[in-house]
């Protein structure tokens, strides 16, 4: 661990902290855009003043739709400085998905890229601004959109004339326990819930991560969405707290990843396992110079043994962990130098600052080798779900234990193995996918009577969705049309890979669809031992 990594009270204090100690050190890099810590500190202050001029105050929300790039994360730190909550919006989301998060979070400001690559967001932004009254201003990066938004430059200029004393008082009122991030994650209702993450929780967990995952110099690749904890927390905040350099990429691209690691001498490569697999499968993997890497880690889903073996040949320092959005960061870590068995079959051992236990359905604390729900207690915990006290109470009990909903066991060596989920949520390429959201959409398709979506194993993405459908009488359902219907309305990682159509779906005695039978049917087909439809 680096000796001068400290745990501050507020995540927004770190730019000034490092600017005072290492002003000329690089803080952020995106292609030719390079910011030192002195420049980052000045930018955060300028953005925060502009937000203050726009009326943003403690407890407000600021929604940002953009790629992983400096402006987006500066918006995060500026909102945090004022005690507002930053809500990152996923660029893959369709309009209905964006509208749900905006309606639930009620942001005062919407800051966005007007377009990225082949997608134009201007019409979506106009609809969001027209239909959601909480949005008082829309700001677009690089240029204004007539009749819709101000440019970022004009927005920042407006902050230059504020009352400096009033601004300073607003900053001083922000407390360590105030929420700073509002991260939407799927829950038991099938609709995403906003997990509120505090300054203190984010500072504490990022500081702890430096103990487990360190490199000198600390140069971290960040190419993950600003809408989840991996991109904002496990990569950016970890690097910021450690005083390192965040090297941004606006999207994942296998060849681009390898070239960026080589060009920027990246030392820490953290991805979901799927991304590591795709990068190493690229033809440039054998020629790229990635010898600068001192640490490779993956999170969000296990890595196949074959991939781990390849990674060990590139960099001996490998790790993985286990955590949820609701735990802020990892609560278990595989120790650097762990065996292939530990890296492939476990999520490592608990951070000593947190308590973990495995509990049976009847509340008994279980011993080694016994499967039950993994529960966590400590400062690695969200505040709660935004405007959802009942859901918060269901997640965090009166003794402070956070109920993860994951099934796991502790091995005799102290490492934890995650074996499944109490719910049927699955992860595809590291993204949480909740089947009920997709089922609701499919049941709105003309001719669909019932829909059931289950996660099945996939060699590349970890898991993918298979949709089982029962048609209405006389209806004819076709897989290409169903897939197109979903692709128009869902982020690509939520679109089922298979659509399996039968006369009826298996039912339990209580009248619910028997998803266990569907999963058995899927496994049977994958193994070549059974039909693709449950009998």
Key words describing this protein structure:
GMP Synthetase, Chain A, domain 3, 25% strand, 3 domains, 28 strands, five-stranded parallel β-sheet, Rossmann fold, disordered C terminus, Luciferase, domain 3, alpha/beta, 17 helices, globular, 535 residues
Structure, briefly:
The protein has 17 helices and 28 strands.
Overall structural class, as computed from helix and strand content, comes to alpha/beta
CATH classification, class level of the largest domain = Alpha Beta
Number of helices in the DSSP assignment? 17
- Superfamily (CATH H level) name of the largest domain: ANL, N-terminal domain
Mean pLDDT: 94
The major beta sheet can be summarized as:
5 strands, parallel
Stretches where pLDDT is under 50 for at least 5 consecutive residues are 530-535
Total count of strands: 28
Query: Helix proportion of residues, in percent?
Result: 25-40%
The CATH architecture of the largest domain comes to: 3-Layer(aba) Sandwich
């Amino acid at each position: 661990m680096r000796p001068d990594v400290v745990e501050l009270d507020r995540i927004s204090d770190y730019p000034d902290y490092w600017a005072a100690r290492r002003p000329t050190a690089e803080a952020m890099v995106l292609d030719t855009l390079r910011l030192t810590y002195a420049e980052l500190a000045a930018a955060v202050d300028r953005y925060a003043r502009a937000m203050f001029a726009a009326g943003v105050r403690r407890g407000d929300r600021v929604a940002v739709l953009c790629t992983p790039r400096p402006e987006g994360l500066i918006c995060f730190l500026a909102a945090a400085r004022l005690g507002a909550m930053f809500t990152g919006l996923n660029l893959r989301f369709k309009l209905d998905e964006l509208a749900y998060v905006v309606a639930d979070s009620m942001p005062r400001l919407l800051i966005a890229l007007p377009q990225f690559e082949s997608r134009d967001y201007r019409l979506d932004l106009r609809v969001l601004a027209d239909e959601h009254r909480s949005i008082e201003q829309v700001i677009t990066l690089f240029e204004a959109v007539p009749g819709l938004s101000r440019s970022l430059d004009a927005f920042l200029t407006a902050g230059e004339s504020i009352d400096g004393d009033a601004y300073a008082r607003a900053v001083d009122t922000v407390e360590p326990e105030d929420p700073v991030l509002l991260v939407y994650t799927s829950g038991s209702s099938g609709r995403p819930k906003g997990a509120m993450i505090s300054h203190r929780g984010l500072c504490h967990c990022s500081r702890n991560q430096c103990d487990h995952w360190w490199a000198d110099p600390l140069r971290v690749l960040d190419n993950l969405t600003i809408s989840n904890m991996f991109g904002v927390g496990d990569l950016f905040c970890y690097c910021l707290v450690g005083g390192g350099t965040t090297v941004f990429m606006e999207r994942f691209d296998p060849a681009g990843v390898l070239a960026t690691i080589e060009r920027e001498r990246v030392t820490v490569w953290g991805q979901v396992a799927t991304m590591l697999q795709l990068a190493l499968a690229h033809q440039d993997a054998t020629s790229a110079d990635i010898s600068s890497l001192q640490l490779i880690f993956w999170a969000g889903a296990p890595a196949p043994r074959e991939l781990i073996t390849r990674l060990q040949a590139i960099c001996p320092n490998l790790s993985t962990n286990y955590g949820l959005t609701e735990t802020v960061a990892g609560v278990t870590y595989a120790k650097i130098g762990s065996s292939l068995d530990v890296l492939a079959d476990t999520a490592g051992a608990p951070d000593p600052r947190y308590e973990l236990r495995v509990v049976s359905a009847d509340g008994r604390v279980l011993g080694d080798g016994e499967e039950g729900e993994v529960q966590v207690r400590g400062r690695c915990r969200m505040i709660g779900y935004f405007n959802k006290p009942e859901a918060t109470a269901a997640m965090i009990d009166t003794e402070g234990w956070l109920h993860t909903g994951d099934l796991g066991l502790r091995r005799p060596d102290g490492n934890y193995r995650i074996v499944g989920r109490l719910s049927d949520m699955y992860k595809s390429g590291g993204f949480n996918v909740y089947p009920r959201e997709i089922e609701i959409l499919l049941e709105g398709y003309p001719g669909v009577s019932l829909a059931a979506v289950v996660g099945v194993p996939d060699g590349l993405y970890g898991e993918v969705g298979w949709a089982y459908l029962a048609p209405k009488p006389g209806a004819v359902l076709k897989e290409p049309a169903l897939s197109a219907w979903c692709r128009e309305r869902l982020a690509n990682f939520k679109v089922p890979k298979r659509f399996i159509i039968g006369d009826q779906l298996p039912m339990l005695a209580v009248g619910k669809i028997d998803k266990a039978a569907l999963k058995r049917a899927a496994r049977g087909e994958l193994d070549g031992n059974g039909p693709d439809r449950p009998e």
